[in-house]
Fold this protein.
Amino acid sequence: MSNFAENLRKAIFNKRFKAVDVSRGANIRPSVISRYLSGINQPSTGNLFAIAEYLGVSPNTLLNSSDTPESSESSRYISSDKDKIIAVQEELIKSLQKQVTAQSHYIQVLFEKLEEAKAESKERHTKGREKPYAKEWEEPKGKKRGEKTREKAKKPKSKKSKK
């Protein structure tokens, strides 16, 4: 593939265009643009200027090899952008690691409390802990069963008025 074909492909990609967009914008048939992209043909001077103008690049950018200062400068920008992205990702990873560590400590404390509660429950169960409401239902000493209920059932009779 020729330098021109490679540079044209990169320029179209960087602008997020399609070959048909360049064809319309530069007023060149799509089949001619296709031959330029495949490296079969080289552009005429007029077509070179039309394509460069439409893409907003210099004609030299499209003709020169990718080792030109202009393209190495753009690769430097890409490298610095990659470095920035990597740095941000590393910061995010550190932040997430701190959150995971804090949450794992919290979960560990919860499990310890759960184990303590289980142990206390088992201890109460094995001791046969007295229920707090059991005394309320005990029968008073000296009375037979049922007397208590009879006393509660006795109510003073109300006087009915006669007419």
User: Anything to note?
Assistant: The chain is about 70% helix and 0% strand. The first helix runs from residue 3 to 14.
